[in-house]
Amino acid sequence: MTAVLINTTKQMKQKNIMLVANTIKSLVSATKGDISIKTGLSLATCGTILNELCVKGEVIEESLDQSRGGRPAKRYKYNASYFSVLSVYVEGVGNSGMISSSLTSADGKKIEEYNEIYHDFTVDKLMIHIQNVIDKHSNIKAIGLGLPGVVVDGKVLTCDIPRIEDLAIAELLSHKLGIFVQVGNDMNYAAFGFYRHNCRNINDPIAYIYMPPRHCAGCGIVISGEMLRGASQFAGEVSKLPFYDDLENEASNNAQINLTLEKLINITSSLIAIINPATIAISGSKISQHCIDELSAKLLEKFDSQHIPHFVYRDSIKSDYHYGIFEYTLDAYNNFRVFDI
């Protein structure tokens, strides 16, 4: 997420509120003293913020710690049911595919998942799917939507699902549902989810390559905790690399060529030379751990071992994708509700 510039006393207070709330989430249960030590804020500041959060219901006051001679310390925990986030993604070919949604509490616990196969996609079907989930869970305050395409400022410029193209989908959903909505690219979300779950706080570049069965390969990149989108949100469109079409043509004339492996060699070579990633996660229907082992051996013929990233095989993109949508949407919603941006 883009960092919020703190330049007023009010914004500093708002930043401290989020710091305390996030600290309680990470500690699960904590006293005012625990929070003060963890955040570096004074006991008085922590006390004021905790009182405000308790009044709102975002934080719950637990039973008192056992006294050791003085006044017993109050304990606090984050209210997991204060609000929830719905992550949704659409995947498919043409007008057939799947809508997958996952509901997660504000403290990161998965509540429920819903998957729906569609054969004639329309935006109304997507709306009905989301509305059905909202009707079952009244505390959903934010929705994140992932799409296989180029999304700029909530508008879909290109997409594997033609009926979504040219739609200002974020504005449309937000207006109809009355809920905070943000929309993004599938590979950016998957890379962000993998990063947050496996490489959090690592500043080195992390990449995520996905090779779906019927579409071109895609790539998401995270550097210093931020998605790399590019100037026109086109970063990661590795199928536009110059070798891609040539390999397709060569494979049609040479049955012996392992097209998947050859594509991976060229994609990962490009990434190594340009962003020098520490880790590359790879997923796809034709990907296996054996394929990744072969890839590493081939790359050692081109690069010194110190430049070869750590490869991680992902048997499915689903968990990384949903987690990335949740984490990014939660950050965006917290900035929206606290800083009004």
Quick recap of the structure?
The chain is built from 10 helices and 15 strands. It has helices spanning 9-27, 32-39, 43-56, 123-136, 169-177, 186-198, 243-253, 259-274, 289-299, 318-339; strands at residues 29-31, 59-61, 75-78, 84-93, 96-105, 110-118, 140-147, 149-152, 155-159, 180-185, 206-211, 218-223, 226-227, 279-284, 310-314.
Question: What features would you describe in this structure?
Answer:
The structure is a single chain. With 341 residues, the chain is of the alpha/beta class. It folds into three domains: 9-78, Arc Repressor Mutant, subunit A (Orthogonal Bundle), CATH 1.10.10.10; 84-188 and 319-339, 2-Layer Sandwich (Nucleotidyltransferase, domain 5); 199-316, Nucleotidyltransferase, domain 5. Helix content is 40%, strand content 26%. It contains ten helices and 15 strands. The chain has helices at 9-27, 32-39, 43-56, 123-136, 169-177, 186-198, 243-253, 259-274, 289-299, 318-339; strands spanning 29-31, 59-61, 75-78, 84-93, 96-105, 110-118, 140-147, 149-152, 155-159, 180-185, 206-211, 218-223, 226-227, 279-284, 310-314. The strands form four sheets. A five-stranded mixed beta sheet has the order 6-5-4-7-10, with helices on both faces. It has a five-stranded mixed beta sheet with strand order 13-12-11-14-15, with helices on both faces. Strands 1-3-2 form a three-stranded antiparallel beta sheet. The longest helix is centred in the last third of the chain and has 22 residues, at 318-339. The two termini are 12 Å apart. The model has no long low-confidence stretch (mean pLDDT 90). This is ROK family protein. It comes from Yersinia frederiksenii ATCC 33641. Belongs to the ROK (NagC/XylR) family. Pfam families: ROK.
